[in-house]
Prior knowledge:
The chain has one domain (2-189): Pyruvate-ferredoxin Oxidoreductase, domain 3, CATH 3.40.920.10. Strands 2-3-1-4-5-6-7-8 form an 8-stranded mixed sheet. It is built from 5 helices and 8 strands, in the order E-H-E-E-E-E-E-H-H-H-H-E-E. It is α/β, with parallel strands linked by helices.
Amino acid sequence: MYEIRFHGRGGQGAVMAAAMxxxxxxxxxxxxxxxxxxxxxxxxxxxxxxxxxxxREIRRMTNIYRPDCVVCIDPTVGRAVDVFEGVRDGGxxxxxxxxxxxxxxxxxxxxxxxxxxxxxxxxxxxxxxITNTIMLGAFARTTGLVSIAxxxxxxxxxxxxxxxxxxxxxxxxxxxxxxxxxxxxxxxIA
Length: 190
């Protein structure tokens, strides 16, 4: 089982991103469960969402305390919560950042980083810093676990199917194209 924890702020769509990613995994024939977690339930407060994916049925519906992958859709949420808490050795970080992947302060457990300047992309595409679909593209590029086609299908089937669908499809593609993947063990950029 592969476990993913999303971090963001209220109103940015972390919960929606986890649900869309789960739909994309199901589209590709795997089992997936997205579990939302709400704290203060106000715009700007730190939020988390959890996703499990496996080749067989998933019964666990709890929060994730030992993620294989952490996706941060907000560049500042790491100042409010420990996004690396419990991450497995060799774990993956998919981070919204304007810094180069090699410039990030990372714990030893992180083995792969996908860095995407999602805020800049969001401002160009949407005119506001909503990065969730951009970071789904970044996740696909960083991990190779899901295809852009399956993510696009999930977008078309989501509640975005009317308002802003084309913008979100563009954002997804730009997130994939704009992600730099850095393998810590190799100290090289892919």
